[in-house]
Amino acid sequence: MIKVKAPGKLYIAGEYAVIEPGTPAILVAVDKYITVTIKESNNFGTINSAQYEENSVNWTRNGNKIVFDNRDNPFHFLIEAINIAEKYVKENNKSLKFYHLSINSELDNHDGRKLGLGSSAAITVATIKALCKFYNLNVTNDEIFKLSAIAHLNVQGNGSLGDIAASVYGGWIAYSSFNRQWLNEQIGKNKSLKQLLHTTWPQLSIKRLNPPRDLQLLIGWTGSPASTPHLVDKVNTNKNNHKNEYKQFISDSTNCINELIRAFEQQDLTSIQKQINNNRLLLNKLSKISNINIETPKLTQLCNIANKYNGASKTSGAGGGDCGIVIINKNQKLNDLIQEWKQSDIKMLKMNVANFEN
Protein backbone atom coordinates (compact mmCIF):
# COMPACT_ATOMS: atom_id res chain seq x y z
CA MET A 1 0.00 0.00 0.00
CA ILE A 2 1.28 3.48 -0.93
CA LYS A 3 0.54 6.47 1.31
CA VAL A 4 1.70 10.05 0.65
CA LYS A 5 0.64 13.51 1.75
CA ALA A 6 0.84 17.07 0.41
CA PRO A 7 0.37 20.22 2.49
CA GLY A 8 -1.97 23.13 2.01
CA LYS A 9 -0.68 26.62 1.32
CA LEU A 10 -1.16 30.27 2.13
CA TYR A 11 -0.15 33.26 0.08
CA ILE A 12 1.92 35.69 2.14
CA ALA A 13 2.22 38.43 -0.51
CA GLY A 14 2.13 39.02 -4.26
CA GLU A 15 -1.35 37.69 -5.01
CA TYR A 16 -2.88 38.49 -8.41
CA ALA A 17 0.37 40.01 -9.70
CA VAL A 18 1.91 36.51 -9.64
CA ILE A 19 -0.50 35.49 -12.40
CA GLU A 20 1.72 37.47 -14.79
CA PRO A 21 4.67 35.27 -15.85
CA GLY A 22 7.89 36.13 -14.05
CA THR A 23 6.20 38.26 -11.39
CA PRO A 24 7.14 37.15 -7.85
CA ALA A 25 5.07 36.16 -4.83
CA ILE A 26 5.79 34.57 -1.46
CA LEU A 27 3.89 31.53 -0.17
CA VAL A 28 4.12 29.17 2.74
CA ALA A 29 3.12 25.53 3.09
CA VAL A 30 1.07 24.72 6.21
CA ASP A 31 0.89 21.51 8.21
CA LYS A 32 -2.63 20.57 7.18
CA TYR A 33 -2.52 17.86 4.57
CA ILE A 34 -4.21 15.93 1.82
CA THR A 35 -3.34 12.26 2.25
CA VAL A 36 -3.66 9.89 -0.71
CA THR A 37 -3.55 6.12 -0.24
CA ILE A 38 -3.25 3.64 -3.12
CA LYS A 39 -3.73 -0.12 -2.91
CA GLU A 40 -3.42 -2.38 -5.95
CA SER A 41 -6.60 -4.15 -7.05
CA ASN A 42 -7.84 -6.48 -9.80
CA ASN A 43 -10.26 -5.80 -12.68
CA PHE A 44 -11.58 -2.46 -11.40
CA GLY A 45 -10.57 0.48 -9.23
CA THR A 46 -12.25 2.94 -6.88
CA ILE A 47 -11.78 6.52 -5.74
CA ASN A 48 -13.20 7.51 -2.40
CA SER A 49 -12.80 10.18 0.22
CA ALA A 50 -13.53 10.36 3.91
CA GLN A 51 -15.09 13.77 3.16
CA TYR A 52 -17.26 12.54 0.25
CA GLU A 53 -18.26 9.05 1.28
CA GLU A 54 -21.54 9.25 -0.62
CA ASN A 55 -19.64 10.03 -3.85
CA SER A 56 -17.34 7.01 -4.12
CA VAL A 57 -16.42 6.49 -7.78
CA ASN A 58 -15.75 3.14 -9.48
CA TRP A 59 -13.58 2.96 -12.57
CA THR A 60 -12.33 0.44 -15.10
CA ARG A 61 -10.23 0.59 -18.25
CA ASN A 62 -10.98 0.68 -21.95
CA GLY A 63 -7.52 -0.19 -23.24
CA ASN A 64 -5.20 2.27 -21.51
CA LYS A 65 -7.95 4.81 -20.87
CA ILE A 66 -9.64 5.05 -17.48
CA VAL A 67 -13.43 4.99 -17.70
CA PHE A 68 -15.49 6.24 -14.75
CA ASP A 69 -18.85 4.80 -13.89
CA ASN A 70 -20.03 8.08 -12.42
CA ARG A 71 -19.12 11.23 -14.34
CA ASP A 72 -20.89 13.54 -11.88
CA ASN A 73 -18.28 13.44 -9.15
CA PRO A 74 -16.26 15.89 -6.98
CA PHE A 75 -12.87 14.57 -8.02
CA HIS A 76 -12.06 16.57 -11.17
CA PHE A 77 -8.57 17.65 -10.11
CA LEU A 78 -7.75 14.18 -8.85
CA ILE A 79 -8.96 12.53 -12.05
CA GLU A 80 -6.86 14.83 -14.22
CA ALA A 81 -3.87 14.15 -11.96
CA ILE A 82 -4.41 10.43 -12.58
CA ASN A 83 -4.61 11.03 -16.34
CA ILE A 84 -1.34 13.00 -16.40
CA ALA A 85 0.47 10.60 -14.05
CA GLU A 86 -0.56 7.57 -16.09
CA LYS A 87 0.42 9.27 -19.35
CA TYR A 88 3.87 9.70 -17.81
CA VAL A 89 3.82 6.07 -16.63
CA LYS A 90 3.16 4.91 -20.21
CA GLU A 91 5.96 7.13 -21.53
CA ASN A 92 8.25 5.26 -19.14
CA ASN A 93 7.14 1.92 -20.64
CA LYS A 94 5.44 0.62 -17.51
CA SER A 95 2.23 -1.43 -17.50
CA LEU A 96 -0.86 0.18 -16.04
CA LYS A 97 -2.58 -1.42 -13.05
CA PHE A 98 -5.86 -1.25 -11.19
CA TYR A 99 -5.90 0.26 -7.71
CA HIS A 100 -8.12 1.65 -4.98
CA LEU A 101 -7.31 5.28 -4.24
CA SER A 102 -8.45 7.01 -1.05
CA ILE A 103 -8.24 10.65 -0.02
CA ASN A 104 -8.38 12.22 3.39
CA SER A 105 -8.35 16.01 3.73
CA GLU A 106 -7.49 18.29 6.64
CA LEU A 107 -7.93 21.36 4.45
CA ASP A 108 -11.65 21.92 4.94
CA ASN A 109 -13.59 22.98 8.00
CA HIS A 110 -15.45 20.25 9.91
CA ASP A 111 -18.68 21.33 8.20
CA GLY A 112 -17.13 21.02 4.73
CA ARG A 113 -16.50 24.73 4.09
CA LYS A 114 -13.24 25.61 2.32
CA LEU A 115 -10.55 27.23 4.45
CA GLY A 116 -8.71 28.69 1.45
CA LEU A 117 -5.67 26.47 1.91
CA GLY A 118 -5.31 25.24 -1.67
CA SER A 119 -7.04 21.89 -1.39
CA SER A 120 -7.29 21.33 -5.16
CA ALA A 121 -3.54 21.88 -5.54
CA ALA A 122 -2.73 19.59 -2.63
CA ILE A 123 -5.01 16.87 -4.04
CA THR A 124 -3.27 17.17 -7.41
CA VAL A 125 0.23 17.02 -5.91
CA ALA A 126 -0.55 14.17 -3.52
CA THR A 127 -2.12 12.10 -6.32
CA ILE A 128 0.82 12.66 -8.69
CA LYS A 129 3.32 11.77 -5.93
CA ALA A 130 1.37 8.68 -4.86
CA LEU A 131 1.03 7.30 -8.39
CA CYS A 132 4.69 7.91 -9.22
CA LYS A 133 5.58 6.01 -6.06
CA PHE A 134 3.03 3.28 -6.84
CA TYR A 135 4.58 2.77 -10.29
CA ASN A 136 8.15 3.01 -8.93
CA LEU A 137 9.01 6.16 -10.86
CA ASN A 138 11.89 8.09 -9.35
CA VAL A 139 10.81 11.73 -9.72
CA THR A 140 12.28 14.98 -8.42
CA ASN A 141 10.38 17.85 -6.83
CA ASP A 142 10.78 19.79 -10.09
CA GLU A 143 9.20 16.95 -12.05
CA ILE A 144 6.33 16.58 -9.57
CA PHE A 145 5.71 20.33 -9.83
CA LYS A 146 5.58 20.24 -13.64
CA LEU A 147 3.31 17.20 -13.82
CA SER A 148 0.99 18.70 -11.18
CA ALA A 149 0.98 22.11 -12.87
CA ILE A 150 -0.07 20.58 -16.21
CA ALA A 151 -2.85 18.57 -14.55
CA HIS A 152 -4.12 21.56 -12.55
CA LEU A 153 -4.11 23.92 -15.53
CA ASN A 154 -6.01 21.36 -17.61
CA VAL A 155 -8.88 21.62 -15.12
CA GLN A 156 -8.79 25.21 -13.87
CA GLY A 157 -7.41 26.98 -16.92
CA ASN A 158 -5.98 29.94 -15.01
CA GLY A 159 -3.98 30.81 -11.92
CA SER A 160 -0.28 31.09 -11.17
CA LEU A 161 0.27 27.54 -9.82
CA GLY A 162 2.00 28.99 -6.75
CA ASP A 163 -0.20 26.75 -4.60
CA ILE A 164 1.19 23.73 -6.48
CA ALA A 165 4.74 24.92 -5.71
CA ALA A 166 3.98 25.31 -2.01
CA SER A 167 2.49 21.81 -1.84
CA VAL A 168 5.49 20.28 -3.59
CA TYR A 169 8.41 22.06 -1.92
CA GLY A 170 7.03 22.92 1.54
CA GLY A 171 8.25 25.71 3.82
CA TRP A 172 8.48 29.37 2.78
CA ILE A 173 9.08 29.97 -0.92
CA ALA A 174 9.50 32.85 -3.34
CA TYR A 175 7.71 31.91 -6.55
CA SER A 176 7.37 33.38 -10.04
CA SER A 177 4.99 31.73 -12.49
CA PHE A 178 5.99 30.35 -15.85
CA ASN A 179 4.74 31.50 -19.24
CA ARG A 180 1.50 29.52 -19.56
CA GLN A 181 1.03 30.50 -23.21
CA TRP A 182 4.40 28.90 -23.96
CA LEU A 183 3.35 25.72 -22.14
CA ASN A 184 0.08 25.54 -24.06
CA GLU A 185 2.02 25.94 -27.32
CA GLN A 186 4.38 23.10 -26.36
CA ILE A 187 1.45 20.85 -25.49
CA GLY A 188 -0.18 21.83 -28.80
CA LYS A 189 2.97 20.63 -30.57
CA ASN A 190 2.38 17.21 -28.98
CA LYS A 191 5.53 17.41 -26.86
CA SER A 192 5.76 14.39 -24.58
CA LEU A 193 5.63 14.80 -20.82
CA LYS A 194 9.24 13.60 -20.69
CA GLN A 195 10.23 16.41 -23.02
CA LEU A 196 8.28 18.99 -21.03
CA LEU A 197 9.74 17.82 -17.73
CA HIS A 198 13.30 18.14 -19.00
CA THR A 199 12.80 21.55 -20.60
CA THR A 200 13.39 24.85 -18.82
CA TRP A 201 10.04 26.57 -18.37
CA PRO A 202 10.39 30.28 -19.24
CA GLN A 203 10.18 32.66 -16.26
CA LEU A 204 9.52 29.92 -13.69
CA SER A 205 11.38 30.52 -10.43
CA ILE A 206 11.04 28.66 -7.12
CA LYS A 207 13.35 29.66 -4.27
CA ARG A 208 13.33 28.64 -0.61
CA LEU A 209 13.25 31.36 2.06
CA ASN A 210 14.21 31.24 5.74
CA PRO A 211 12.11 33.41 8.06
CA PRO A 212 13.63 35.35 10.99
CA ARG A 213 13.59 33.41 14.25
CA ASP A 214 11.32 35.97 15.92
CA LEU A 215 8.72 35.87 13.13
CA GLN A 216 5.32 34.43 14.07
CA LEU A 217 2.71 33.70 11.42
CA LEU A 218 -0.93 33.89 12.54
CA ILE A 219 -3.80 32.80 10.32
CA GLY A 220 -7.35 34.03 10.78
CA TRP A 221 -10.34 32.55 8.99
CA THR A 222 -13.46 34.63 8.30
CA GLY A 223 -15.77 31.65 7.82
CA SER A 224 -16.70 32.82 4.30
CA PRO A 225 -15.30 30.70 1.43
CA ALA A 226 -14.21 32.43 -1.79
CA SER A 227 -13.77 31.25 -5.37
CA THR A 228 -10.23 31.96 -6.58
CA PRO A 229 -10.87 31.15 -10.30
CA HIS A 230 -13.91 33.45 -10.36
CA LEU A 231 -12.03 36.37 -8.80
CA VAL A 232 -8.99 35.86 -11.05
CA ASP A 233 -11.27 35.82 -14.11
CA LYS A 234 -12.81 39.15 -13.06
CA VAL A 235 -9.36 40.75 -12.70
CA ASN A 236 -8.34 39.43 -16.12
CA THR A 237 -11.55 40.79 -17.65
CA ASN A 238 -11.24 44.27 -16.11
CA LYS A 239 -7.48 44.82 -16.46
CA ASN A 240 -7.84 45.65 -20.16
CA ASN A 241 -10.05 48.61 -19.23
CA HIS A 242 -7.36 50.00 -16.91
CA LYS A 243 -4.14 49.02 -18.67
CA ASN A 244 -1.93 51.77 -17.25
CA GLU A 245 -3.16 51.31 -13.68
CA TYR A 246 -2.80 47.54 -13.94
CA LYS A 247 0.71 47.86 -15.37
CA GLN A 248 1.62 50.12 -12.43
CA PHE A 249 0.17 47.56 -9.99
CA ILE A 250 2.37 44.82 -11.48
CA SER A 251 5.45 47.06 -11.25
CA ASP A 252 4.70 48.14 -7.68
CA SER A 253 3.95 44.57 -6.58
CA THR A 254 7.21 43.32 -8.13
CA ASN A 255 9.20 45.96 -6.26
CA CYS A 256 7.36 45.18 -3.03
CA ILE A 257 7.98 41.42 -3.24
CA ASN A 258 11.63 41.87 -4.21
CA GLU A 259 12.07 44.08 -1.12
CA LEU A 260 10.26 41.45 0.92
CA ILE A 261 12.56 38.69 -0.36
CA ARG A 262 15.59 40.85 0.56
CA ALA A 263 14.13 41.37 4.04
CA PHE A 264 13.83 37.58 4.46
CA GLU A 265 17.42 37.15 3.31
CA GLN A 266 18.55 39.80 5.81
CA GLN A 267 16.37 38.32 8.59
CA ASP A 268 14.78 41.76 9.06
CA LEU A 269 11.34 41.36 10.64
CA THR A 270 10.60 45.10 10.70
CA SER A 271 11.18 45.39 6.93
CA ILE A 272 9.11 42.25 6.32
CA GLN A 273 6.20 43.81 8.20
CA LYS A 274 6.60 47.08 6.29
CA GLN A 275 6.29 45.30 2.94
CA ILE A 276 3.33 43.20 4.13
CA ASN A 277 1.50 46.44 4.93
CA ASN A 278 2.58 47.87 1.57
CA ASN A 279 1.25 44.81 -0.26
CA ARG A 280 -2.10 45.19 1.49
CA LEU A 281 -2.38 48.75 0.13
CA LEU A 282 -1.50 47.58 -3.37
CA LEU A 283 -4.19 44.88 -3.27
CA ASN A 284 -6.75 47.47 -2.15
CA LYS A 285 -5.78 49.60 -5.17
CA LEU A 286 -6.24 46.57 -7.44
CA SER A 287 -9.64 46.00 -5.86
CA LYS A 288 -10.75 49.47 -7.01
CA ILE A 289 -9.21 49.06 -10.46
CA SER A 290 -10.88 45.70 -11.03
CA ASN A 291 -14.15 46.38 -9.22
CA ILE A 292 -13.82 43.25 -7.08
CA ASN A 293 -14.09 42.92 -3.33
CA ILE A 294 -10.70 41.53 -2.27
CA GLU A 295 -10.71 42.77 1.33
CA THR A 296 -14.18 42.06 2.71
CA PRO A 297 -15.41 43.90 5.84
CA LYS A 298 -14.58 40.83 7.96
CA LEU A 299 -11.04 40.71 6.52
CA THR A 300 -10.64 44.45 7.20
CA GLN A 301 -11.69 43.78 10.79
CA LEU A 302 -9.18 40.92 11.02
CA CYS A 303 -6.37 43.19 9.78
CA ASN A 304 -7.29 46.18 11.91
CA ILE A 305 -7.34 44.08 15.08
CA ALA A 306 -3.91 42.67 14.24
CA ASN A 307 -2.53 46.16 13.62
CA LYS A 308 -3.56 47.20 17.15
CA TYR A 309 -1.12 44.61 18.48
CA ASN A 310 1.83 45.59 16.25
CA GLY A 311 1.12 42.92 13.67
CA ALA A 312 1.37 43.44 9.91
CA SER A 313 -1.72 41.93 8.33
CA LYS A 314 -3.39 41.44 4.95
CA THR A 315 -5.66 39.18 2.98
CA SER A 316 -4.22 35.87 1.80
CA GLY A 317 -4.78 34.54 -1.70
CA ALA A 318 -7.64 35.84 -3.81
CA GLY A 319 -9.43 37.44 -0.86
CA GLY A 320 -13.18 37.86 -1.06
CA GLY A 321 -13.38 35.77 2.14
CA ASP A 322 -11.28 32.85 3.36
CA CYS A 323 -8.15 33.80 5.33
CA GLY A 324 -6.07 36.74 6.43
CA ILE A 325 -2.49 36.47 7.67
CA VAL A 326 -0.53 38.31 10.32
CA ILE A 327 3.24 38.66 10.58
CA ILE A 328 4.13 39.52 14.17
CA ASN A 329 7.00 39.24 16.62
CA LYS A 330 6.56 35.96 18.49
CA ASN A 331 7.55 37.71 21.70
CA GLN A 332 4.37 39.82 21.57
CA LYS A 333 1.53 38.86 23.88
CA LEU A 334 -0.83 37.31 21.37
CA ASN A 335 -3.70 36.20 23.60
CA ASP A 336 -5.46 39.58 23.49
CA LEU A 337 -5.30 39.66 19.69
CA ILE A 338 -6.66 36.13 19.40
CA GLN A 339 -9.40 36.85 21.93
CA GLU A 340 -10.49 39.97 20.04
CA TRP A 341 -10.60 37.96 16.82
CA LYS A 342 -12.79 35.42 18.59
CA GLN A 343 -15.17 38.15 19.77
CA SER A 344 -15.44 39.30 16.13
CA ASP A 345 -16.24 35.75 14.93
CA ILE A 346 -12.81 35.31 13.35
CA LYS A 347 -11.28 31.89 13.95
CA MET A 348 -7.56 31.48 14.45
CA LEU A 349 -6.43 28.44 12.51
CA LYS A 350 -3.97 26.44 14.59
CA MET A 351 -1.28 25.33 12.16
CA ASN A 352 2.44 25.63 11.58
CA VAL A 353 4.71 25.88 8.58
CA ALA A 354 5.17 22.51 6.86
CA ASN A 355 8.84 21.86 6.14
CA PHE A 356 9.45 18.56 4.41
CA GLU A 357 11.13 16.98 1.42
CA ASN A 358 9.93 14.33 -1.01
UniProtKB/TrEMBL annotation:
It is an enzyme of class 2 (transferase). Keywords: ATP-binding, Kinase, Nucleotide-binding, Transferase. This is phosphomevalonate kinase. It comes from Candidatus Gallilactobacillus intestinavium. Pathway: Isoprenoid biosynthesis; isopentenyl diphosphate biosynthesis via mevalonate pathway; isopentenyl diphosphate from (R)-mevalonate: step 2/3. Residues 88-171 form the GHMP kinase N-terminal domain. Its EC number is 2.7.4.2. GO terms for molecular function: ATP binding; phosphomevalonate kinase activity. PANTHER family: PHOSPHOMEVALONATE KINASE, PTHR31814. Residues 260-343 form the GHMP kinase C-terminal domain. The lineage of its organism: Bacteria, Bacillati, Bacillota, Bacilli, Lactobacillales. It holds the Pfam family GHMP_kinases_N.
